[in-house]
Amino acid sequence: MSYETFTTTMHLRWLDTILPKRICSWEFADSEWIMILNFDKFTDDPRSTLNLQIVRNENCLSWNRKSSVMIRVKKLIRDQTTYTSSHKIIELQKPFESTELRFSKILKRSEIVEENDEYPVEITLIMEKFENSLEKVPKFDFKESSGSPKSDVILNIDGVKIYANKTLLAIHSKVFDSMFFSEFVEKNQTEIILEDDDPDDFMELLKLIYPSAGSTIINDSNVDGIYKLADKYFMTHVMFQCEHFMETSKDYSVRDWLVAEKYDVPELMKKSKPTFVRQLAESFDF
């Protein structure tokens, strides 16, 4: 387990023991940290409470949803150095979610005696670092050969060479399974020409089945091309993803009805038919 550390120094004055004060804020571990020092006013010798407010950033990857945080305080008061440490567990589930850590008994008011004096207090945060496994998984560039078994076939589409893996294609496609692992001529070929396909659509399709190729989100601009290829190569799981996108779309189009009719998708045909009929009627002048 690895750790990430951050150290900052603040200078306390006697006035800081009277009024709660926002000490500072900084970026640490993909999050914003706001430090506020409060003194308990209801005891004879008030002790400080250090509040740390943490706001998790949108793309936070350097620590897990649940991580361990330790705060270590080094005080230099009247030429005497003392240390205080405390340990907390922080847990944030969503981006921009915030939480607050409270560390008590950091400093006594009586330790700060001179009104105009300043005392350095060094705050060190030590956070358990999350080893993001996604960063360790290689990303695939389908236009470059990796020189390893994971790219063992070239798919030549309209002159564009796409480097792919036979086994992975076969897992998702009955057509490629038969092509590569049955008695077809393509079985022993290292380069195969695919006719009537769009290379960009095919790479979008591959991103859906490769675990680390970079996520593809099915949308209005790519669903037609992906669905056409998935149907051609009998990739039922990808077809299901495309159908789910079209069936759950709030705005059906004539395109959806035509796709449903062509590929025999009853549920999509049912949902998109009213839009198709309405737009068809609007195209005529009565």
UniProtKB/TrEMBL annotation:
InterPro entries: BTB/POZ_dom, SKP1/BTB/POZ_sf. Residues 151-210 form the BTB domain. PROSITE patterns: BTB. This is BTB domain-containing protein. It comes from Caenorhabditis angaria. It comes from the Eukaryota. Pfam families: BTB (PF00651).
